[in-house]
Amino acid sequence: MPELPEVEVVRAGLAPALVGARIEAVTVLDPRALTRHAGDAASFERALNGRTVSAAARRGKFLWLPLEPAAGAVGESSEAIVGHLGMSGQMLLRPSGAEPERHERIRLDIAHPAHGDLAVVFSDQRTFGSLAVDQLVLTADGAAGGWGTDAPQVPSQVAHIARDPLDPAFSDGRFAASVRAKRSAVKRILLDQTVVSGVGNIYADESLWAARIHPETPGSALSDRAVNRLLAEVRAVLERALAEGGTSFDSQYVNVNGQAGYFAHSLNAYGRDGESCPRCGTKLVRESFMNRGSHFCPKCQRRS
DNA sequence: GGAATAACCTGGATGC
DNA sequence: TGCATCCAGGTTATTC
Fold first, then answer.
1. Which end of chain A is more exposed for a tag (fewer CB within 10 A), N or C?
2. How far apart are CA A107 and CA A304, in angstroms?
3. Distance CA A104, CA A136 (A)
4. Of residues A126, A174, A292, A302, which has the active-site annotation?
5. Which nucleotide's C1' sits nearest to the alpha carbon of A290?
6. Helix A201-211 crosses helix A224-243 at what angle (to 10 degrees)?
7. Chain B bases closer than 7 A to any CB of the protein
8. Which nucleotide lies nearest residue A292, CA to C1'?
9. Are residues A13 and A132 in the same domain?
10. Is A301 part of a structural domain of the chain?
Protein backbone atom coordinates (compact mmCIF):
# COMPACT_ATOMS: atom_id res chain seq x y z
CA MET A 1 0.00 0.00 0.00
CA PRO A 2 1.33 3.47 -0.75
CA GLU A 3 2.86 4.94 2.40
CA LEU A 4 5.61 7.56 2.61
CA PRO A 5 8.39 5.62 0.81
CA GLU A 6 6.11 4.55 -2.01
CA VAL A 7 4.68 8.06 -2.50
CA GLU A 8 8.19 9.54 -2.42
CA VAL A 9 9.33 7.10 -5.13
CA VAL A 10 6.37 8.25 -7.23
CA ARG A 11 7.09 11.93 -6.58
CA ALA A 12 10.76 11.54 -7.50
CA GLY A 13 9.77 9.67 -10.64
CA LEU A 14 7.23 12.26 -11.73
CA ALA A 15 9.39 15.32 -11.08
CA PRO A 16 11.77 15.14 -14.08
CA ALA A 17 8.93 14.55 -16.53
CA LEU A 18 6.40 16.96 -15.06
CA VAL A 19 8.27 20.01 -13.81
CA GLY A 20 8.22 22.49 -16.68
CA ALA A 21 5.64 20.47 -18.61
CA ARG A 22 2.52 22.05 -20.07
CA ILE A 23 -0.80 20.23 -19.68
CA GLU A 24 -2.25 19.87 -23.18
CA ALA A 25 -5.35 17.83 -22.40
CA VAL A 26 -7.19 16.37 -19.40
CA THR A 27 -9.45 13.30 -19.60
CA VAL A 28 -11.54 12.25 -16.60
CA LEU A 29 -12.73 8.69 -17.16
CA ASP A 30 -14.16 8.16 -13.67
CA PRO A 31 -15.43 11.11 -11.58
CA ARG A 32 -14.96 9.03 -8.41
CA ALA A 33 -11.27 9.87 -8.78
CA LEU A 34 -12.19 13.49 -8.04
CA THR A 35 -13.69 13.02 -4.59
CA ARG A 36 -11.25 15.59 -3.18
CA HIS A 37 -12.01 18.09 -5.96
CA ALA A 38 -14.50 20.81 -5.08
CA GLY A 39 -16.09 20.97 -8.54
CA ASP A 40 -17.10 18.53 -11.27
CA ALA A 41 -14.98 16.84 -13.93
CA ALA A 42 -15.49 19.73 -16.35
CA SER A 43 -14.18 22.27 -13.84
CA PHE A 44 -11.17 20.02 -13.15
CA GLU A 45 -10.39 19.86 -16.85
CA ARG A 46 -10.91 23.62 -17.34
CA ALA A 47 -8.65 24.45 -14.40
CA LEU A 48 -5.74 22.43 -15.80
CA ASN A 49 -5.82 22.84 -19.56
CA GLY A 50 -2.86 24.91 -20.71
CA ARG A 51 -1.26 25.15 -17.25
CA THR A 52 2.43 24.47 -16.57
CA VAL A 53 3.67 22.41 -13.62
CA SER A 54 6.31 24.20 -11.55
CA ALA A 55 7.28 21.53 -8.95
CA ALA A 56 6.51 18.06 -7.57
CA ALA A 57 6.08 18.10 -3.79
CA ARG A 58 5.07 15.69 -1.04
CA ARG A 59 4.10 15.69 2.62
CA GLY A 60 3.39 12.31 4.16
CA LYS A 61 1.24 10.42 1.68
CA PHE A 62 -0.02 13.52 -0.13
CA LEU A 63 1.49 14.66 -3.43
CA TRP A 64 0.99 18.02 -5.05
CA LEU A 65 2.04 19.72 -8.28
CA PRO A 66 2.12 23.53 -7.97
CA LEU A 67 1.02 25.29 -11.15
CA GLU A 68 2.39 28.39 -12.82
CA PRO A 69 -0.13 31.22 -13.25
CA ALA A 70 -2.76 30.70 -15.93
CA ALA A 71 -2.29 32.66 -19.15
CA GLY A 72 -3.37 36.25 -18.60
CA ALA A 73 -3.39 35.92 -14.80
CA VAL A 74 -1.73 38.60 -12.68
CA GLY A 75 0.66 37.74 -9.83
CA GLU A 76 1.84 34.40 -8.49
CA SER A 77 -0.24 31.27 -8.89
CA SER A 78 -1.66 29.77 -5.74
CA GLU A 79 -3.04 26.57 -7.20
CA ALA A 80 -1.81 23.01 -7.34
CA ILE A 81 -2.93 19.57 -8.40
CA VAL A 82 -3.13 17.61 -5.16
CA GLY A 83 -3.29 13.85 -5.11
CA HIS A 84 -3.59 10.94 -2.72
CA LEU A 85 -2.99 7.36 -3.90
CA GLY A 86 -5.30 5.83 -1.30
CA MET A 87 -4.73 2.09 -1.15
CA SER A 88 -4.18 1.19 -4.77
CA GLY A 89 -3.57 4.42 -6.68
CA GLN A 90 -0.79 4.60 -9.25
CA MET A 91 0.70 7.53 -11.15
CA LEU A 92 2.18 6.17 -14.34
CA LEU A 93 4.20 7.83 -17.08
CA ARG A 94 3.28 6.47 -20.48
CA PRO A 95 4.07 7.40 -24.08
CA SER A 96 1.61 9.79 -25.61
CA GLY A 97 -1.35 7.85 -27.03
CA ALA A 98 -0.65 4.72 -24.96
CA GLU A 99 -3.49 2.22 -24.57
CA PRO A 100 -5.68 2.84 -21.46
CA GLU A 101 -4.65 1.07 -18.24
CA ARG A 102 -7.09 -1.44 -16.75
CA HIS A 103 -8.13 0.87 -13.89
CA GLU A 104 -7.33 4.19 -15.50
CA ARG A 105 -9.35 7.04 -13.95
CA ILE A 106 -7.69 10.23 -15.16
CA ARG A 107 -5.19 11.01 -17.91
CA LEU A 108 -3.13 14.17 -18.37
CA ASP A 109 -1.51 14.65 -21.76
CA ILE A 110 1.56 16.78 -21.27
CA ALA A 111 4.26 18.38 -23.41
CA HIS A 112 7.69 18.76 -21.84
CA PRO A 113 10.33 21.00 -23.47
CA ALA A 114 13.03 18.31 -23.07
CA HIS A 115 11.11 15.02 -22.97
CA GLY A 116 8.40 15.72 -25.54
CA ASP A 117 4.84 14.43 -25.34
CA LEU A 118 3.87 12.08 -22.51
CA ALA A 119 0.75 10.81 -20.75
CA VAL A 120 0.41 10.92 -16.96
CA VAL A 121 -2.06 8.20 -16.01
CA PHE A 122 -3.82 8.05 -12.64
CA SER A 123 -4.89 4.44 -12.23
CA ASP A 124 -6.67 3.14 -9.14
CA GLN A 125 -8.29 -0.24 -8.55
CA ARG A 126 -10.12 0.47 -5.29
CA THR A 127 -10.92 4.12 -5.97
CA PHE A 128 -9.79 5.33 -2.55
CA GLY A 129 -7.30 7.66 -4.21
CA SER A 130 -8.15 10.92 -5.92
CA LEU A 131 -6.85 14.08 -7.57
CA ALA A 132 -8.04 17.65 -7.13
CA VAL A 133 -7.19 21.22 -7.99
CA ASP A 134 -6.69 23.04 -4.71
CA GLN A 135 -5.57 26.41 -3.37
CA LEU A 136 -2.11 26.68 -1.82
CA VAL A 137 -1.96 28.22 1.65
CA LEU A 138 1.00 29.31 3.78
CA THR A 139 2.49 26.77 6.17
CA ALA A 140 1.84 27.42 9.85
CA ASP A 141 5.56 27.32 10.74
CA GLY A 142 6.84 29.23 7.71
CA ALA A 143 9.05 26.33 6.59
CA ALA A 144 8.90 24.66 3.18
CA GLY A 145 5.66 22.77 2.59
CA GLY A 146 7.33 19.41 2.12
CA TRP A 147 9.80 17.42 0.06
CA GLY A 148 10.43 18.74 -3.43
CA THR A 149 9.58 22.38 -2.79
CA ASP A 150 11.21 25.35 -1.10
CA ALA A 151 7.97 27.33 -1.03
CA PRO A 152 6.31 27.67 2.41
CA GLN A 153 2.99 26.52 0.98
CA VAL A 154 0.77 23.44 1.07
CA PRO A 155 -2.61 22.70 -0.53
CA SER A 156 -5.42 23.70 1.81
CA GLN A 157 -6.55 20.10 2.21
CA VAL A 158 -3.04 19.10 3.34
CA ALA A 159 -2.66 21.91 5.87
CA HIS A 160 -3.98 19.81 8.77
CA ILE A 161 -1.55 16.96 8.00
CA ALA A 162 1.50 16.82 10.25
CA ARG A 163 4.99 16.88 8.80
CA ASP A 164 6.55 13.48 8.19
CA PRO A 165 9.56 12.15 10.14
CA LEU A 166 11.94 12.65 7.18
CA ASP A 167 10.97 16.33 6.84
CA PRO A 168 13.80 18.63 8.11
CA ALA A 169 11.15 20.78 9.81
CA PHE A 170 9.64 17.84 11.72
CA SER A 171 9.65 18.55 15.47
CA ASP A 172 10.78 15.56 17.53
CA GLY A 173 9.76 17.35 20.72
CA ARG A 174 6.25 18.08 19.51
CA PHE A 175 5.84 14.47 18.40
CA ALA A 176 6.99 13.13 21.77
CA ALA A 177 4.67 15.49 23.61
CA SER A 178 1.71 14.46 21.42
CA VAL A 179 2.33 10.76 21.96
CA ARG A 180 2.74 11.04 25.70
CA ALA A 181 -0.38 13.21 26.04
CA LYS A 182 -2.62 10.51 24.56
CA ARG A 183 -4.07 7.45 26.24
CA SER A 184 -4.74 5.86 22.84
CA ALA A 185 -2.80 2.82 21.67
CA VAL A 186 0.57 3.85 20.26
CA LYS A 187 -0.21 2.21 16.93
CA ARG A 188 -3.35 4.32 16.60
CA ILE A 189 -1.23 7.40 17.29
CA LEU A 190 1.31 6.40 14.61
CA LEU A 191 -1.53 6.06 12.12
CA ASP A 192 -2.96 9.49 13.06
CA GLN A 193 -1.74 11.71 10.22
CA THR A 194 -2.27 14.84 12.30
CA VAL A 195 0.42 13.62 14.73
CA VAL A 196 2.94 12.21 12.27
CA SER A 197 2.32 11.70 8.58
CA GLY A 198 3.44 9.09 6.10
CA VAL A 199 3.12 6.04 8.37
CA GLY A 200 0.57 3.39 7.44
CA ASN A 201 -0.21 -0.08 8.68
CA ILE A 202 2.90 -1.76 7.25
CA TYR A 203 5.49 0.68 8.58
CA ALA A 204 3.67 1.11 11.90
CA ASP A 205 3.99 -2.64 12.52
CA GLU A 206 7.61 -2.69 11.36
CA SER A 207 8.60 0.31 13.49
CA LEU A 208 6.89 -1.04 16.62
CA TRP A 209 8.57 -4.42 16.12
CA ALA A 210 11.97 -2.74 15.75
CA ALA A 211 11.38 -0.60 18.86
CA ARG A 212 10.06 -3.64 20.83
CA ILE A 213 6.83 -1.87 21.71
CA HIS A 214 3.43 -3.60 21.83
CA PRO A 215 1.02 -1.91 19.38
CA GLU A 216 -1.64 -1.41 22.06
CA THR A 217 0.62 0.26 24.61
CA PRO A 218 -1.00 3.59 25.59
CA GLY A 219 1.02 6.57 24.41
CA SER A 220 0.92 7.98 27.94
CA ALA A 221 2.58 4.79 29.24
CA LEU A 222 5.69 5.29 27.11
CA SER A 223 8.79 6.92 28.57
CA ASP A 224 10.60 9.71 26.74
CA ARG A 225 13.31 7.21 25.96
CA ALA A 226 10.82 4.77 24.45
CA VAL A 227 9.19 7.46 22.32
CA ASN A 228 12.59 8.58 21.04
CA ARG A 229 13.51 4.97 20.27
CA LEU A 230 10.26 4.52 18.40
CA LEU A 231 10.77 7.69 16.36
CA ALA A 232 14.31 6.59 15.48
CA GLU A 233 12.97 3.23 14.29
CA VAL A 234 10.19 4.89 12.27
CA ARG A 235 12.83 6.93 10.48
CA ALA A 236 15.11 3.95 9.96
CA VAL A 237 12.33 1.78 8.55
CA LEU A 238 11.10 4.53 6.21
CA GLU A 239 14.62 5.25 4.97
CA ARG A 240 15.37 1.57 4.32
CA ALA A 241 12.09 1.13 2.48
CA LEU A 242 12.77 4.24 0.41
CA ALA A 243 16.21 2.92 -0.52
CA GLU A 244 14.63 -0.32 -1.73
CA GLY A 245 11.95 1.38 -3.80
CA GLY A 246 9.06 0.80 -1.37
CA THR A 247 6.90 -2.20 -0.53
CA SER A 248 4.81 -3.96 -3.18
CA PHE A 249 2.09 -6.57 -2.68
CA ASP A 250 0.21 -8.01 -5.66
CA SER A 251 1.22 -5.05 -7.84
CA GLN A 252 -0.82 -2.73 -5.59
CA TYR A 253 2.07 -0.31 -5.62
CA VAL A 254 4.43 0.39 -8.51
CA ASN A 255 6.64 3.31 -9.47
CA VAL A 256 5.88 5.63 -12.41
CA ASN A 257 7.26 3.01 -14.80
CA GLY A 258 5.07 0.23 -13.41
CA GLN A 259 7.91 -1.49 -11.52
CA ALA A 260 7.47 -3.00 -8.04
CA GLY A 261 9.59 -2.14 -4.98
CA TYR A 262 11.64 -4.69 -3.06
CA PHE A 263 11.08 -3.85 0.61
CA ALA A 264 8.44 -6.59 1.04
CA HIS A 265 11.39 -9.01 1.18
CA SER A 266 12.83 -7.09 4.15
CA LEU A 267 9.75 -7.00 6.37
CA ASN A 268 10.27 -8.45 9.85
CA ALA A 269 6.72 -8.47 11.22
CA TYR A 270 4.06 -7.28 8.79
CA GLY A 271 2.35 -10.17 7.04
CA ARG A 272 4.58 -12.73 8.76
CA ASP A 273 2.15 -14.08 11.37
CA GLY A 274 2.87 -17.73 12.04
CA GLU A 275 6.54 -17.32 11.10
CA SER A 276 9.42 -17.07 13.59
CA CYS A 277 10.41 -13.68 14.94
CA PRO A 278 13.77 -12.83 13.28
CA ARG A 279 15.01 -11.60 16.68
CA CYS A 280 13.97 -14.25 19.21
CA GLY A 281 12.38 -17.07 17.21
CA THR A 282 8.95 -16.80 18.86
CA LYS A 283 6.01 -17.27 16.52
CA LEU A 284 4.72 -13.88 15.29
CA VAL A 285 1.01 -13.22 15.76
CA ARG A 286 -1.64 -11.18 13.99
CA GLU A 287 -4.46 -9.52 15.89
CA SER A 288 -7.35 -7.45 14.60
CA PHE A 289 -6.87 -3.78 15.39
CA MET A 290 -8.76 -0.79 14.00
CA ASN A 291 -10.42 -2.95 11.34
CA ARG A 292 -7.05 -4.10 10.06
CA GLY A 293 -4.25 -6.49 10.93
CA SER A 294 -1.63 -5.85 13.60
CA HIS A 295 1.48 -8.03 13.43
CA PHE A 296 3.91 -8.34 16.32
CA CYS A 297 6.08 -10.65 18.42
CA PRO A 298 4.35 -11.55 21.72
CA LYS A 299 7.73 -12.05 23.43
CA CYS A 300 9.76 -9.06 22.17
CA GLN A 301 6.77 -6.71 22.29
CA ARG A 302 5.14 -7.39 25.63
CA ARG A 303 1.85 -5.73 26.52
CA SER A 304 2.44 -3.24 29.34
C1' DG B 1 -12.73 18.01 22.59
C1' DG B 2 -10.80 13.50 22.48
C1' DA B 3 -11.42 8.85 21.18
C1' DA B 4 -13.48 5.10 18.73
C1' DT B 5 -16.01 3.27 14.92
C1' DA B 6 -18.30 2.85 10.37
C1' DA B 7 -18.30 3.61 5.62
C1' DC B 8 -16.32 3.96 1.26
C1' DC B 9 -14.42 0.50 -2.65
C1' DT B 10 -12.70 -3.56 -5.82
C1' DG B 11 -10.59 -7.81 -6.95
C1' DG B 12 -8.10 -11.82 -5.32
C1' DA B 13 -8.44 -15.73 -2.24
C1' DT B 14 -11.10 -19.03 -0.06
C1' DG B 15 -14.91 -22.12 0.97
C1' DC B 16 -18.84 -24.62 -0.37
C1' DT C 1 -17.17 -24.74 -12.36
C1' DG C 2 -19.65 -21.17 -10.35
C1' DC C 3 -21.28 -18.51 -6.73
C1' DA C 4 -20.96 -16.26 -2.14
C1' DT C 5 -18.22 -14.44 1.34
C1' DC C 6 -14.13 -12.55 3.40
C1' DC C 7 -10.23 -9.64 3.44
C1' DA C 8 -6.91 -5.90 2.52
C1' DG C 9 -6.49 -0.53 4.58
C1' DG C 10 -6.23 5.43 4.24
C1' DT C 11 -9.15 8.95 5.15
C1' DT C 12 -13.14 11.18 6.82
C1' DA C 13 -17.68 11.63 8.78
C1' DT C 14 -20.27 10.22 12.51
C1' DT C 15 -21.06 8.67 17.07
C1' DC C 16 -19.95 8.10 21.84
1. C
2. 50
3. 27
4. A292
5. B5
6. 130
7. 2-13
8. C9
9. yes
10. no
Q: How many domains does chain A have?
A: 2
Write out the residue range of the structural domain in which residue A259 sits.
172-296
pLDDT tens digits in sequence order for chain A, 304 residues long: 788 999 999 999 999 999 999 999 999 988 889 988 888 899 999 999 999 999 999 999 999 999 998 777 766 668 999 999 988 889 999 999 998 888 899 999 999 999 999 999 999 888 888 999 999 999 989 999 999 999 999 999 999 899 999 999 999 999 999 999 998 999 999 999 999 999 999 999 999 999 999 999 999 999 999 999 999 999 999 999 999 887 766 566 677 777 777 777 788 998 888 889 999 999 998 888 888 888 999 999 988 7
* CB A291 under 7 Å to nucleic chain B: yes
A154, A190: one domain: no
Do A112 and A191 lie in a common domain?
A: no
Domain match, A154 and A176 both: no
Backbone angles phi and psi of A20, in degrees to 5: 95, -5
**CA-CA distance, A169 to A142, in Å (whole number)?**
10
| Residue A291 shares a structural domain with residue A177 | yes
Å between CA of A22 and C1' of C7: 41
For A290 and B5, how far is CA from C1' in angstroms? 8
